[in-house]
Request: fold
Amino acid sequence: MRPAEPLSRLRNLGFQVATAPGLTFEQVRLARDAFQVIGTRPSLGTLVSVAAISASAACCEAAIAAAFAELDRLVPIFSRHEPDSALSTLNDAGRLAGPPPELVRVLERSLYFHGLSRGAFDVTVKPVLDLLDARFPARAPSAAELRDVAALIGAGHLSVGRRAIRFSRPGMGVTLDGIAKGDIVDRMADVLTCHGVRRFLINAGGDVRAAGHKEGHRPWTVGVRDPSSGGVLPGAIELRDGAVATSGGYERFYDSERLFHHIINPASGHSANVAWSVSVWAPTSLAADALATTVFVLGPEAGMRLLETLSDCAGLIVTEDGVQRPSRRWRWLSRNQEEGIA
Reply:
């Protein structure tokens, strides 16, 4: 979204500003019976913001605080970096008895997208990421090292059930980097709705979820970040109820030559380097997140073919040479706005 107004300027304009540990609120009266409250806090490796509109500013603040509490509850389940997380326990032992239902849900959805993409979306690429983390910045991994860890990839060897989750081969590992943030945003949206907030925009550093409308009955608008300049590409899309997620290798390179990044092609074990970025519009953030990663791995041709088969989704692919390739539905959704960056 657009950068927030400095707190001093908001105070000078007569806006009420409240702060809580780690969570900053900015409050604006839109009309006699409507307030917009924006809550912002660093999390998930980015800056997460929630804009909520309601007749009660106090209701907005309580709902936003509860949404961030839900985020804090889910991170220790999904994180592969926290040693005591449920996911880390699974990765360390190769089996997890009595798994949290939240982890089961996300892994089941991961397997759905694995099947939909014919293997392009695969959460078992963690051994490759571990190798990249271990080798860089000292040196690039050898072809033999990559080949060995790539042999451990295979969601078909991941068994997911309510009683237990297990790997059928030793050395496997799961990363939820391409889907968990989307699920967390969806759960935050559920919390806002349960608190009576029906108009909101959540922006979690590239994962955006919207509901209802902003002031003046105008839809929320979301623009896509230009991977070459850091600005915003022309042709934002309008959101009333839906989500947009962007995936790009430019987000995290391991090497100066930009050959190795965090989005892995499970078929080869190498970083996917055909597209520059992919943005997907979908009904939920989880779907948008997973599909953005999927299309990035598939590349422009196969990725666009997949997008065009999904009636409730749309996408924009930016190729390595900067060419923008929108799906038919994305062109229909596109508007020349510049508010909200995915």
In short: The chain has three domains: 1-80+178-205, 81-167, 219-342. Confidence is low (pLDDT under 50) at residues 1-20, 336-342.
